[in-house]
Amino acid sequence: MKVLALIPARSGSKSIRHKNVRSVFGKPLIQYSIDQALSAKSVSRVVVSTDSAEYAQLAEGLGAEAPFLRPEAISGDLSTDLDVFKHALEWFKNNEGWAPDIIIHLRPTHPVRRPEDIDAAVFLLEEHPEWDSVRSVAPAPHPPFKMWNIQDGMLQPFAECGVEEAWNHPRQALPQVWLQNAAIDVTRPRTIIDLRSMTGQKIGAFPMRDFYDVDTTEELDRAVAALLLREEMPTGRTFVFDIDGVIATLAPANDYERAFPLDDNIALINRLYDLGNKIVLFTARGSATGRDWVDLTRGQMSSWGVKYHDLRFGKPAADFYVDDRMMSVSDLSSWISTTPL
Hints:
Elements: E1 3-8, E2 23-24, E3 27-28, H1 29-39, E4 45-49, H2 53-61, H3 81-96, E5 102-105, H4 115-126, E6 133-139, E7 148-151, E8 154-157, E9 178-187, H5 189-193, E10 203-207, H6 217-230, E11 238-241, H7 263-274, E12 278-283, H8 294-303, E13 310-313, H9 329-336
Parallel strand pairs: 1-4, 1-5, 6-10, 11-12, 12-13
Antiparallel strand pairs: 2-3, 5-9, 6-9, 7-8
Helix pairs in contact: 6-9, 7-9
């Protein structure tokens, strides 16, 4: 069985510029999909379809093939998956005389999937020759039975489910519905070429738990958090922590003598320290007023039992800090709380 994993990665994303190659934990976003496809036992070839020579070179360096550049005509905002996959199949036929039996659609914007899931979806289609395709789905976060159309100023139910006035019932009392999650689609060449469809009409379900397709910065943050939980425990890394609001309570009128320790967060920092990470404390104390808080701060860190390597002052006072390496305390806690010392 010849199985092609095709990863479409055009360069013209508008919502997040160059999102397909954006760095996530030191890897281009597309690398997660390439690595997963290369690790899947069912996959014969991993190919990236892109309109960018730079993306193609990157993909080849990561172990994928990029034997062609996608034409500009099918690389725009309104280009369809069908155009992209039809072009790839025709290119392989005309240039290599090769055709896969099954094609997997792996979107680089859904980096959270397992190679075993890819294999299971392929196996499902193999076991059902009468199906045109298999599509991954996840539980819909919002039931359509609580959605509406507006006609002549009046609300009309968007969907019916046989439950009287479903829109007034708790979500838990309504039928489970599923949303395509853009993680894994498996189809056949005949579905694309003969039926001119990515799915056909006979679509097998591959249920998954989560939805992490990235189209906005908020969705990217969710995917990053999910990838974080799959990473190994951190060691040998550098973590920089603010003090007030992270290690200490926010002090009224910036009178830091009145700050109290946040014990749970301090325990988290100490655990990172014990795991062999470098801990840097960086504070804006005194930046706005010019007052010297060095001795008080060092004394607080000592009496509160905070383990750290370096304490730095001079952080500019600000209402907001924007940083591409930002991590919330809750995300950090979820990451390192999964494995005991």
